[in-house]
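Consider this record:
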Amino acid sequence: MGLLDTVLGALGTRRAAPKAAPDDDLFDDDFQRKLETLALLSKRVFAGRMRAERRTKKSGSGIEFADHRDYQAGDDFRYLDWNVYQRFDRLLVRLYEEEEDLAIYFIVDASRSMGFGNGKKLKYAKRVCAALSYVGLANLDRVSITSTADKITDRMPATRGKARIFKVLRFLRELEAAGQTNLEDAMKAFVAQNKRRGLVVLVSDLYDPHGFERGINVLRYNKFDPFVVHVTDEGDAKPKLAGDVLLYDCETGDEREVTVTAKVLDRFAHAYRDYLAEIERFCASKQVPCIRADVSVPFDELILRLFRRGGFLR
């Protein structure tokens, strides 16, 4: 087994994993009140620069000047730049940036590793996704959600407007952890289904035996803007194991007999920290915004950290 198999495999012994508690109270009244507060704070944080960052590179009939091009027969005379004509005796047409709402795609990893340990990571991912979706909806962006494992498992079509948050919450409540992680295959299916480019928020623990880099690179190479929310649980680095145990990979079912000692646990914790650092190095080198989302941090505190850092709302 490699590093990633070790991270997955050492999470538990071959015994029935506790079932995740129902998500009925995951989005209670207190949670929804916090959503409105976060939406208001997002407007303050990004006031003054939001509009400029939301513009696409399409040229059209907007109000922000983009470039010139040579006049062609049939062009509207109103767009001729007479100042340029007076100075250089050339007929040039002014081009303007066309504004359109931002497309935000949320991709929630719903593989078995996200559901391990009473489903803490998947529940946290749902809350973070709901909060960021509400901020996007409040800013009149188009929001869609896709759940994945080794393929796309479910999809909520694009929607907009604050009132649609209840559609988002219903979709997220029904997500259950199943399947193995293969971000590359899942992202290939995603880009094939979505032709409109936009911001892609990947919410995942990034436990991919094929390499988390491949999935992120699929998004980059297809001109989407990836933003990674790396869901972590400190308990993954400190499994409560001792003696002779039969470890298993919660996604593949692969087993290994191991004698767990304090030295083995130290080596495992070190390997886990190295893996976290590897993710940060990769994202930094590719200029992919990445924020670590530990399940012990209240979700609203994490969202505020994300706002202060920047990179989500463009």
Summary: DSSP finds eleven helices and eleven strands in the chain. Residues 231 and 293 are 5 Å apart (CA to CA).
